[in-house]
Amino acid sequence: MERQSFCFLFVQSTIHQIFSVSKAGPEQVSLKSIKITGAEIIDLRIPTSDQMLGSDPFHKMPDYSSAVLHLKTDSGLKGVSIVFTVGAGTDWICHGIQDLCQLVIGADLESLTESPITLYQRLIDHHQLRWLHDGVFRMAAGAILNAVFDLWAKAVRKPMWKLLVDLEPEFVVDCIDWRNIQDALTPEEALEILQRNRPALGRRQSDMQVQGPKAYCTAGWLGLSDQQILETIQNLQKQGFDSFKLKVGRDSEQDVERIRFMRDAIGPDCNLMVDANQYWGLEEAKRHIKRYLPFGLKWIEEPIARDDVLGYVELAETFKSASFGMACGEHAASPVIFKQLLKSRAIKYCQIDAVRVAGVNDIMAIVLMAAKYEIPICPHGGGIALCNMISHYGMWDQIAVAGHSETQLVEYIDFLQDAVEQPVKIQDGCYVAPTAHGWGLEFHPEFIERHRFPNGEVWKDRAANRKGAAFEVALK
Amino acid sequence: MERQSFCFLFVQSTIHQIFSVSKAGPEQVSLKSIKITGAEIIDLRIPTSDQMLGSDPFHKMPDYSSAVLHLKTDSGLKGVSIVFTVGAGTDWICHGIQDLCQLVIGADLESLTESPITLYQRLIDHHQLRWLHDGVFRMAAGAILNAVFDLWAKAVRKPMWKLLVDLEPEFVVDCIDWRNIQDALTPEEALEILQRNRPALGRRQSDMQVQGPKAYCTAGWLGLSDQQILETIQNLQKQGFDSFKLKVGRDSEQDVERIRFMRDAIGPDCNLMVDANQYWGLEEAKRHIKRYLPFGLKWIEEPIARDDVLGYVELAETFKSASFGMACGEHAASPVIFKQLLKSRAIKYCQIDAVRVAGVNDIMAIVLMAAKYEIPICPHGGGIALCNMISHYGMWDQIAVAGHSETQLVEYIDFLQDAVEQPVKIQDGCYVAPTAHGWGLEFHPEFIERHRFPNGEVWKDRAANRKGAAFEVALK
């Protein structure tokens, strides 16, 4: 009830109006009237390692997990965000989020959204916390920012993509931390990119609501037999997919055989990508990748370390005549790393992750840099509910930043979609445009209760076996 | 008593002997007999922001702090390590160390030291924790590794530098994670570097025991008046210093005036360095640095973001004819970042930090890469007891890796040295070779009790005011 009466105030407002009347008017009062009263941080873990789901050479037995943040308000609305991890370590991030929540509890929503760079800088440039570098710190900061954006989108009754699309170009530019990236993209260039898409915004939005971002899927998991891979491909093709990924990395001979097998199975016209999950050193990567030249691959994903920029530059040069380009970003921890990969054109596909960098603000910077260098945004999906988030970024990019859908592919993995109230949908190989307000990250309450670590039903008898660092698996 | 009788067993052993008899013999039994029985992790914070000590444009009110790890054993020996931070955030690292301790509690010392890469990989490549990236995770892992090395050095009754110097070259090479750095340095090249220094090891060691690594000091803190800076310089010159650093970053006009003032004060023959603490973007850095050309500076420290490798490459090219080179590393979070800065020769001074990367193993990799590219190791000091650690790395580098002392400068800051039982000593502007066993990181017990956060004497009445993220200071 409380929620309905609140929403009524906003039903006819647009985000434009909210900003254009930011000094006065009923909308301002209403955003201002939403106060953050508290936070619940949930260590949510799914024992996916029971089935070896999502394993790769480094992450041999992942338990897909999320630090889930619920920002509570006095309005009945709840701001939700997640930080995906692969099990142990979720508590590290929960600890950080708990600390950072102090910066938003007690604030009203208007004070946080009228200038999102202010909250961003309070977090990322915190005079005592910035020492903690990227990783846990930046991911925890992202959780705060993303939950505030979720609350904002819910308050104005829009899916996240629509909130972003409707922001004035000047406002988007003001969301970005420009300190370290202006050699790659200036605020003026960012503004120009956003403004040149304005005339077609209505048409692009309508088009994308009919058919959302084109998706791709991994069919070649390391643990699967040839027969299982064939079945996976057939199943995906029935859903309209024509782009498939294959995990590689360890045995060069087996990898080449599997690439050949996949190419034969999908035919010459489908997209085929491979993912090495950072398993190789630079020279090792060259040796492996040279053997992939005959198969018309689209991209080589994470052939080397996540932040080896000069390594990527060298790979791009080595394979400049190949059908494929390099792809990475899933583990790139900040806009500074992305800046270098994009400006140097060392990567041909920019794989943003929705929760490794500091929230919407960092993603805005990265997507705009990618647009300048005409490098398609191909977000990393999977995990728990990452696809729910990246569908919004795909929409925003393809409507308002890149402004087209010709080169982008958004990852799709159907794991664990039954955990959320608003599962992502695929139609004809494309995402269906999300319609729920905010990110659409609401988990079923009973799912949360069952999977709370270490005391939920799923864990209580065996949490001790998978407790933190003690749950080990040798790399080889 | 327990400790004395234990030490007696080792008094005549050398680390060589321990390894050469690693399959049998009394020494092996003895290392094996030391079992890690538990860990105490201490959130130690000093309210240095009361006096604005150590502030810079980003870290405006640092409370110098350390996550202190005490690994307890059944032998009476204690393995000690620290992770320095600037206040809030110490608890984040303590949380991580607590988790990782599970990997060493219950182990005997031999099992951890006979192949240090095994422990390193169990930490850094942990199949569920590596997702956490660098920063908190890598720093916490470093705490474990450094405490184990401390225990080892104490068990064999050597200062850390001597333990490192005495390791067989092959053993050092086997301590290193080679996955991502072999394009810059191969294991064979590392071995060759270490072996070529072997003939002069005895002489170099004797020389360095007479006069340790040459030190430099910051005289130009942002908050000081001209008169205070003059007094600081005079005081340092009396101690034999001829190399001085100055903080810059905000007001270009004031910075240039201060550089001129410092140069006049110290004369043309002393080394003068400036430190911008990452405050600038790339183009901004160029504008500032161009104005510094006339002053015969030695280095420009952290002009841009800590991991902007291509930015450093561009700065090196822009200022290739200048008297100065670029220096960074204090905030470089992994050997992969160092690899790029060194291989590209973008930096001329390699400023390792003792606790940001994953312990001795990562430092070995970085120091050896620097030696190959003939880039001097000029470690970052200060904080709490960082100088105690880097004096060992300076010794090891200048005896066994670079094998000379001609180009290196090791930072020295005398803050908080009264907190430790073995304060570093300076003589004729050089460190005095440490003689205490291990790192020499023992804090006075009463200092620890007074400064435990949040319940120590110093904090109990005001911890609430500086609690975590809530202790804010605006950046500008």
TrEMBL record, chains A, B:
Keyword Transferase: no
Record keywords, A-Z: Lyase, Magnesium, Metal-binding
Mandelate racemase/muconate lactonizing enzyme C-terminal domain: residues covered: 226-322
Cofactor(s) listed: Mg(2+)
EC number: 4.2.1.68
Enzyme class: lyase
InterPro entries given in the database record: Enolase-like_C_sf (IPR036849), Enolase-like_N (IPR029017), Enolase_C-like (IPR029065), Mandelate_racemase_C (IPR013342), Mandelate_racemase_N_dom (IPR013341), RHMD-like (IPR046945)
GO MF: L-fuconate dehydratase activity; magnesium ion binding
Domain of life the protein comes from: Bacteria
This protein's record includes keyword Metal-binding: yes
A Pfam family this chain is assigned to: MR_MLE_N
GO term, biological process aspect, one: carbohydrate catabolic process
UniProt-recorded name of the protein: L-fuconate dehydratase
Organism per entry: Roseimaritima multifibrata
